[in-house]
């Protein structure tokens, strides 16, 4: 194993608990404790960091079970655009982990602003939130008493910044559209493309 593979394996090992459950779901191992899920899922897990990892989507039934596993382990999960297709992104967030990430990857004294492209991306996503919300409310299948979607691009951007910039220069979060339904994708902006530091 070369150094790059070693580092990649260490990143994946940081998600060992959730990967154990995912491995059991996908491979139905009878001797799960005898193996390392990071080894079994090495080719399945993509772009692993200390805070997140990605998996290719499976069938709808399996995807729902994957989202349930994420919730069980206090991870967020959602579909994101990936090259020419979609991936499921799993990421964890708690106060202590957020503080550590900010110390390592984010200049907490810096000021950031949206680029024209980033502002447009925010506008597109806000319109997606409103459209899905309207569709659900018009069908009278849910309520929206406790869910806010009327963001401005700046408000959405500030909300994302509250979660910190990860080691790939990305800020991201999942959003609800009604009280029991979420957006179709996780919203993500990239440093240097969608937002920049104000000097």
Give a quick summary of the entry.
It contains seven helices and seven strands; from the N terminus they run αααβαββαβααβββ. It has helices at residues 3-13, 16-27, 37-40, 60-72, 95-105, 116-138, 153-161; strands at residues 52-55, 75-82, 85-92, 111-114, 170-173, 187-190, 195-198. A three-stranded antiparallel β-sheet has the order 1-3-2, with helices on one face. It has a two-stranded antiparallel sheet with strand order 4-7.
Mean pLDDT: 79
Give me the side-by-side strand order of the main sheet: 1-3-2
Low-confidence stretches: 94-106
Beta strand %: 15-25%
Tell me the distance between the termini.
42 Å
Question: What is the molecular shape?
Answer: globular
Class based on secondary structure composition and strand pairing: alpha+beta
The sequence of SSEs as H and E is HHHEHEEHEHHEEE
How would a textbook summarize the main sheet? 3 strands, antiparallel
Percent range for helical residues?
40-55%
State Rg. 18 Å
The counted number of beta strands is 7
Question: How many H/I helices?
Answer: 7
């Amino acid at each position: 194993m070369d150094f790059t593979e070693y580092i990649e394996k260490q990143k994946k090992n940081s998600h060992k608990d959730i990967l154990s459950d995912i491995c059991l779901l996908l491979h139905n191992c009878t001797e799960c404790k005898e193996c390392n899920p990071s080894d079994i899922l090495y080719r399945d897990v993509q772009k692993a960091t200390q805070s997140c990892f990605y998996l290719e989507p499976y069938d709808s039934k399996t995807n729902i079970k994957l989202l349930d596993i994420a919730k069980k382990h206090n991870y967020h999960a959602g579909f994101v655009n990936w090259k020419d297709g979609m991936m499921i992104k799993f990421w964890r967030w708690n106060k202590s982990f957020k503080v550590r990430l900010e110390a390592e990857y984010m200049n907490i004294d810096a000021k950031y602003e949206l680029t024209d492209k980033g502002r447009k991306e925010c506008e597109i996503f806000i319109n997606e939130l409103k459209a899905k919300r309207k569709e659900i409310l018009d069908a009278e299948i849910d309520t929206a008493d406790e869910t806010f979607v009327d963001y401005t691009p700046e408000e959405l951007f500030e909300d994302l910044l509250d979660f910190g910039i990860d080691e790939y220069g990305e800020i991201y979060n999942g959003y609800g559209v009604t009280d029991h339904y979420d957006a179709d994708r996780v919203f993500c902006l990239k440093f240097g493309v969608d937002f920049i530091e104000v000097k």
